[in-house]
Amino acid sequence: MRKLETKTIVVASHNAGKIREIQDLIGPFGFTAKSAAELNFVEPDETGTTFEENATIKALASAEAAGLPALSDDSGLVIDALGGDPGVYTANWAEKPDGTRDFAMAMEKVEAALDKIGASKPEQRTARFVSVLCLAWPDGHTELFRGEVEGVVVWPPRGSRGFGYDPVFQPEGFDTTFGEMSAEQKHGWKPGESAALSHRARAFKIFVETCLEG
């Protein structure tokens, strides 16, 4: 495992919500971070069929363009009753003909798909959020970190916090959705703590233990 020895990195994303969450997570470690969006980097085509492949594509593209280490995230909602969909195509389900993304529409698509197969009970609506972080260096070296959180898909959406599918995901052991939680509640982890709630916080915790500590 390679340690991260610089405090200047690129957040390899154009997703405002994702950039905000990653910057919130890395902030306590004193990083100076700019996003691929701020640097006007072209978004690479995500041609992978796994979260790991797509995270690697994004991180390497930004690391090579910036000449700095880059941290990417590829994440999605995996629903058991839908055979794992939307999965790596989570963002695609939100795409509109004009290229913009509408996650309210995407959540309606998910509910329509579950309704079509009669999945109305919580035990029929089990799901998990998956996040894979990739840290890439300009020389092509990469490290991958995967985090998951189990839960159920609820309807109607609840809450206006977070982003993406957060309002329809209720994590196991909670009666509130990610969309109803503050950032602190959703992540449920700070440096020096052992527990982490969100998929991204769980992946980030492994990243910290692997590349920053020790």
What does this structure look like?
- This protein is α/β, with parallel strands linked by helices and 214 residues long.
- The chain has a single domain, classed as Maf protein, CATH 3.90.950.
- Helices cover 28% and strands 21% of the residues.
- The chain has helices at 16-26, 51-66, 103-116, 183-187, 199-212, and strands at 8-11, 32-35, 70-79, 126-136, 142-153, 169-171.
- The chain has a six-stranded mixed sheet.
- Helix 1 links the parallel strand 1 and strand 2 (32-35).
- The termini are close together.
- The model has no long low-confidence stretch (mean pLDDT 92).
Output the keywords.
214 residues, Maf protein, 6-stranded mixed beta sheet, 5 helices
Describe the secondary-structure layout.
Elements: E1 8-11, H1 16-26, E2 32-35, H2 51-66, E3 70-79, H3 103-116, E4 126-136, E5 142-153, E6 169-171, H4 183-187, H5 199-212
Parallel strand pairs: 1-2, 1-3
Antiparallel strand pairs: 3-4, 4-5, 5-6
Helix/strand order: EHEHEHEEEHH
SS content category: alpha/beta
Contiguous helical run count: 5
Gross morphology = globular
Order of strands across the main sheet? 2-1-3-4-5-6
CATH topology: Maf protein
Radius of gyration: 17 Å
Q: Give the count of structural domains.
A: 1
Q: What is the average of the pLDDT values?
A: 92
What is the helix fraction of residues, given as a range?
25-40%
Q: Give the end-to-end Cα distance, rounded to a whole number of Å.
A: 11 Å
Strand content: 15-25%
The strand count comes to 6
